[in-house]
Amino acid sequence: MTACLLARRHYTCGHGGNHLAQNPLYDALFKPHHGSEQPFLILADDSAISFDAFLRQAARFAHTITACGLDPGDRLAMQIHKSPEALALYAACVSAGVVFLPLNPAYTAREVDYFVSDAGAKLLLCDPEDETALRPVAKTNDARLMTLDRLGLGTFSDAARTQPEQFDTQARSLDDLAALLYTSGTTGRSKGAMLSQRNLLSNAETLRDTWQFSSKDSLLHALPVFHTHGLFVGTNLCLLSGAAMQFLPKFDLDSTLRLLPRATVMMGVPTYYTRLLADPRFDRETSSHMRLFVSGSAPLLADTHAQFEVRTGHRILERYGMTETNMNTSNPYAGDRRAGTVGLPLPGVEVKICNKNGDELPRGETGTLEVRGPNVFQGYWQMPEKTKTELRDCGFFITGDLASQDTDGYVTIVGRGKDLIISGGLNIYPKEVEMVLDVMPGVLESAVIGVPHPDFGEAVVAIIVPQPGVCFDPETIKAAAKTQLAPFKRPKSLIELPDLPRNTMGKVQKAALRANYQDLFK
Predict the structure, then answer these.
(1) Residue 125 falls within a domain, yes or no?
(2) What is the pTM of this model?
């Protein structure tokens, strides 16, 4: 028997749950599954954890959290690897009314120190391998430090093992905070987005109906669970609808291809889909039983859309969300899924495209995207001035993304406001140039940035990733660009790289590229 199964042997007996207090998020996501022996998590080794077993583990965890002195509204910071226990911690926090703060395992001790200090976390859970490095962080911030590894072993699980399998859920309201997620800003102080029960529950209910999730579904889940995509989209949807999850520790091509026949839905970042397309084993037969492929967290190339449809007969559904809002728009489940767009506003969500003064622009013009709805966060933790700057009194959140909306209502994201290039006093949207470059022969993908230039203020620079085995010819690309781009939009320099720098969710790190090439024209 594997260590993983040994660690989870205590999942197998008893029933949990006096849940008398009203707690809307717990009552919707978790309470209906008490006593259900239906599989919730199917692990990479083919073992399964039922809904009821998962919730009994969550009850033990909730008792352990409260035994550590955490009361409703207190914060729990979690920096552990993806595991069923990580999800059980989320359920335990919701049940205990504790604010859940998941952190990327890749963060350094210095970065974790900031998050724990800023959030005032009372309990920090980490992998045993990181305990020594994080002990000073916990001590400095007067937080308790406990461990939990990817197999479910550690001081926290040891403490939880003897706890009861029933936990009286704490009373909470829709306006109470459920989670605190820090934005992955590349400059300045990271901001903690305050997400209420209403924010999470309303978005899950909308996506369930929009994407037609049901208990018959099985989601192939290869995403991390410290991020909105894997946690509040993938996990919450399955809990709300009673669907199962094929639960992978991370995206792995062989495991994904092996488990796809057991799934009906897959969610991923664009990299997942390009890697599948690069493997000849991924074909129409492999995906014939699938109901839905969803992509998000980063733009999906139009060429990937086209290749995927030719290979499988499926059109990937692209959507758009943010840490501060969960999901805002989606291409339709039944209807025209338009490549290059992120679809239509979700039911209950309003969007508008505005100029720098906040005035709404006519359809088709490019400006800053603003959104309003029950999904929009409560503000930034301990940053009232920043909240006031980005969250209008009327409820619209200024996303910072540049976008346009066509006459049919479809939204196209053209880049972040900070990515806008102003060259010779003229505005250049990187996405417009990238769309021209990406379809040129021999180009796999591109990233367009603005860098300081002595004459123009900023110059357009294109980072090109050539297709495998193709000789990179800058002059050919420049010549082709002349026929499709106005002179001021054409790249002043083309730089070849084997791949683009990305964060854990697949977003191209343009700030890093700008830093690397800021002296290019000096």
Answers:
(1) yes
(2) 0.83
Q: Which of 128, 156, 172 is the last residue of a domain?
A: 172
Within a domain: 152: yes
Structure tokens at 6: 């040994």
CATH of residue 509: 3.30.300.30
In terms of Cα–Cα distance, which of 302, 296, 293, 307 is closest to 271? 296
Q: Is 297 contained in some domain?
A: no
The predicted-structure confidence for 150-163, as pLDDT tens digits, reads as follows 999 999 999 999 99
Please, which residues have CB within 8 angstroms of residue 211's CB and are 6 or more apart in sequence? Answer: 237, 265, 292, 294, 317, 330, 333
* Number of Cβ within a 10 Å radius of residue 319: 23
Residue 321 has pLDDT above 80, yes or no: yes
Question: What CATH number does residue 130 fall under?
Answer: 3.40.50.12780
Contacts 24+ apart (CB under 8 A), 436-441: 436/481, 436/484, 436/485, 437/462, 437/464, 437/477, 437/481, 437/491, 438/301, 438/302, 438/303, 439/302, 439/303, 440/477, 440/480
Among 280, 282, 342, which residue's Cα sits nearest to residue 317?
342
pLDDT tens-place string over residues 418-428:
788 878 767 78
Which range marks the domain in which residue 485 is found?
A: 420-516
